[in-house]
Protein 1
Amino acid sequence: MANAINTPAQPDRNCPLCPRLVDFRAQARALHPDWFNSPVPAFGDAKARLLIVGLAPGMQGANRTGRPFTGDYAGDLLYATLLEYGFAKGVYQARPDDGLKLVDCRIGNAVHCVPPQNKPMPIEINTCRQFLIARMAEMPKLQAIVALGRIAHDSTLKALGLRNAAAPFAHGAVHEAGRLRLYDTYHCSRYNTNTRVLTPEMFRNVFAKVRADLG
Ligand code: SF4
C-alpha cells in the first residue's frame, strides 16, 4: 500500500487542500448553516474486514447529514443491501441518529468533500487519496474492498500501488491485490439505477459474493 505516514485518516473539517471544493464548502455553509458541510468521516469500525469506497459526498446526502450515503437515493439501495447481507443491523431511516450499525463493514469516500455536480476533478481525487490510504492503513483486518464506480476503483488501485492495466474496472469483477480482494460495482446512484445500468439484483450479486468470500 502506498505510504500514508503523518496523514490522519480523517481530514480536518476545514481541510484547505482543494481550493475549488473549499469555495464550494464555504458557499454551502453560508446557504445551509445547519448542514454538516465538512469532509465526511468514515462510518463503521476500523476493525472491519470490509471497506466500501464511494465517490464523494452528495450535497443533500452525506454533506447534509454527515454520514456517508445517508439521506440520498444512493443510500436507500446501499443500506438495504448491507442489511440483507448482514453487513448492517437496525433500521435505516436516512438519518445519522437512526441507530443503524455496520457489522464488520466500514464506508468511506475517495473524495471527502462534496464536489459541484457530484464531479470531483482529477487533481482533487489525487489530493484526497492520502486520506483513503490512511484509512486503509488503520484497518488491521481489512480483507475486502468494494469500489462503487470507476473513480473509486481507480483511486483505490492507486492507493494500493497497483496499475490500472492489471485490474481494469468492470462491474462484477474481482481483483486480487495481495492480501486484499477488490470488488467492482457500478455506483448505486439514482442515475445508474433509473437507467438500469445497475439493477438492485446486480448490486446484490456483488455483496453476495463478498459475503460468500468473507464467510
Ligand atoms: S476533498 Fe479531501 S483533500 Fe480536498 S479539501 Fe476535501 S478533505 Fe481536503
Note: DSSP finds seven helices and seven strands in the chain.
Protein 2
Amino acid sequence: MTTPSATPSATPSATPSAVPASAPLSDTFGLQLQHMRDDLLARIRAQRGGAVGRAEAAAARKEQASGDWAQDDAEQDLCIAMDERETAELTALDQALQRVADGSYGLCLDCGVNIPTARLHANPSAMRCVACQEAQER
Ligand SMILES: [Zn+2]
C-alpha cells in the first residue's frame, strides 16, 4: 500500500508553447529534450516510490525488531546519491529547454559558436562546444 501524498509536485514549468518555426534544430532537440525530461521525471518518481515503499517496510520491521539501523542508513545514502545525480540531469535538461525557448539553443554558452550537431545528438543537453567544455572541466 503506497500513499501518493509524498509525490513531489510535478511543476508544470514554463510551457515551451511557442517554438519558433524558423529553428528546426531547436525544434528537433526541443522535442527530444522534452521527452528525456519526461522519462527522467518518471524514473525519479518510480525511484522515490520504491524508496518510500522500502522505508515503510523497514519501519514496520523495526517495530517488531529494532536493530539494523546501519543497513537502512546505507540504503538511504544510496537513494540520496542517485537523487542528486538525477537532479543535476534534470537541471541540465531544464536549462537546455530554456535555451530552446529563448532561441540560444545549440550555441556554445562560452564562445558562442554553433555546437556540432553530432555533439548535440550524443548529448542534447550539452551547452558548450567540446573545447569550452574541456576547459570548464579542467
Ligand atoms: Zn565554446
Note: Residues 24-64 form the longest helix (41 residues).
Protein 3
Amino acid sequence: MQLQSISRSVIAGIGIVSLGIAGCTQTRDFEAGTQAQSSAQTTTAQVSPNAGTQAPTRDPDVIYVPTPEPVVNEMLQIANVQSNDIVYDLGSGDGRIVIAAAKDRGARGIGIDINPERIREANQNAQKAGVTDRVEFRQQDLFETDFSEATVVTLYLLSDLNVKLRPKLLRELKPGTRIVSHAFDMGDWKPEKVVEVAGRTVYYWVVPENPPANLL
Ligand SMILES: C[S@@+](CC[C@H](N)C(=O)[O-])C[C@H]1O[C@@H](n2cnc3c(N)ncnc32)[C@H](O)[C@@H]1O
C-alpha cells in the first residue's frame, strides 16, 4: 500500500485514528502528529548489528512502508548517485535505499530512523548485503539530526512532513545537494524533475545557493 492512499483515506474522513495496514509495523496518528523531543541514540552496523531493541522515545511521524526496489533504483538514478556521494535517507526503514546506494553505486550511506526495530533490521540487512563498512544507521529524530554532510538526501515521508522539513533542508544542506522524494512533493518548492516509475512518482530538487525566503 502506498502512503498516498493512506493520506487519501484520512482526507476521506477517517480522522484521528492510528492506522495499521498490511506490511506496516508502525502506526501514526495522522491528525495529531506528535512533536515531542527527539532521541539521539546512535547504532551502527559495524559496531552493533543487533542493537536497537528498546522502545522508540516517541511515536514515528509516519508509518513504515518500504519503497519498492524499482523506485529505489530510480531514486538513486535521478540523483546520479556516485561513489563519492554521502546519501542520507531520512526515515530509513529497513535501510534499503542507503544499502542500495552503497552496494550498487559504492556510495556511503547514513540511515536515520526513530524506531529502534527499523534500525535493528537495517543493520541486519547491511550485514547480509556486505556493506557494513559503508553504511551506518542512527536511531534519531530526522527533525533533529545533523545531515549537513549529505550530498544526496532521500525521503519517503508525507507532503506535510516534507514541507515541515523544507526549511531545515534548505538552511543546513550545502548548495548543490540533491534531494529525492518518493511520492510526495515539497509544496511551493517546485521540483527540477519528476519521474514516474512502477506507478509511483519520484521528485528531484537541487539545493540552491540562495533559497527564496518564502521556502524557509
Ligand atoms: C514510509 S517509511 C520509508 C522507509 C524507507 N525510507 C523507504 O523508502 O523504504 C518512513 C520511515 O520513517 C520513520 N520515521 C517516522 N518518523 C520519523 C522521525 N521523526 N524521525 C526519524 N524517522 C522517522 C518510520 O519509522 C519509517 O521507518
Note: The CA atoms of residues 81 and 198 lie 20 Å apart.
